[in-house]
Amino acid sequence: MIQIETIFDILVKGFIIGVVVSAPLGPVGVLCIQRTLNKGRWYGFVTGLGASLSDIAYALLTGYGMSFVSDYINKGSFYLQLLGSVMLLVFGIYTFRSNPVNSIRPASSNKGSYFHNFITAFFVTLSNPLIIFLFIGLFARFAFVQQGVLVFEEITGYFAIAAGALTWWLGITYFVNKVRTKFNLRGIWILNRVIGSIVMLVSVAGLIYTLLGESIY
Q: Where are the transmembrane segments (predicted)?
């Protein structure tokens, strides 16, 4: 029987995972901002949409792979959550120290179709399989893959990841579009540092709560 509390728990976890995966300003994040500034908000959003589709594909692949070792995951959940928090901390530090401005490419004078912007972002994201390690860390940290979960609950979880990702891209394109006259290279750098700091804080909180035997939320 499906429990409301369980569904809510899955929705929250999935949404957080979707946001965390999308937020760091890597090549696609910078591309999204560039297109928002140069072509318009919706060109930026469909860029994020393409990235989200690729992220979901990797999320499904990660979840499917981890489901084969669900017994070990359940038995070693404490250590996996510790490992997940450490991986998130490393990722946060990397994000904080990285300079997304280096990913900026010369803007194209041709807007292209929405589909073209969507598909290019999809393949740019797909070309970075290292995101699987981020999903492993997040899935471990939030105990996203569990034994005995109903199919409906699994589908709900992945839809929540997609919702989190899309919410991020909607938010960032709206923000950039609103401050387009004031948004510059330094703004991209500062935004990335803020994101890295938040990820680090969440990971440290996760470490502390895991060591105390408590839930992170």
A: 15-33, 45-66, 78-96, 117-143, 155-176, 188-212
- Would you tell me the crossing angle of helices 151-178 and 4-22 to the nearest 10 degrees? 40
pTM of the model: 0.82
For residue 28 the two structure tokens come to 């696609």
CA distance 163 to 15: 6
d(C-alpha 188, C-alpha 191), whole Å? 5
Structure tokens at 146: 């569990």
Residue whose token pair is 């970075």: 128
Q: How far apart are the first and last CA of the chain?
A: 24
The rounded distance, in Å, linking the Cα atoms of 2 and 4 is 7
CA 174, CA 170: separation in Å to the nearest integer?
6
Buried-state track 36-72, b at ≥16 Cβ within 10 A, e below 16:
bbebebebbbbbbbbbbbbbbebbeebbeebeeeeee
For residues 106 and 153, what is the distance between their CA atoms, to the nearest angstrom? Answer: 43
Q: What distance in Å separates the CA atoms of residue 109 and residue 106, rounded to the nearest whole number? A: 9
- Number of Cβ within 10 Å of residue 10's Cβ equals 23
Taking only the tens place, the pLDDT of each residue in 24-79 is 777 888 889 889 988 899 999 999 999 999 999 999 999 888 877 666 666 667 77
Give the H/E segment covering residue 42.
Answer: helix 41-67
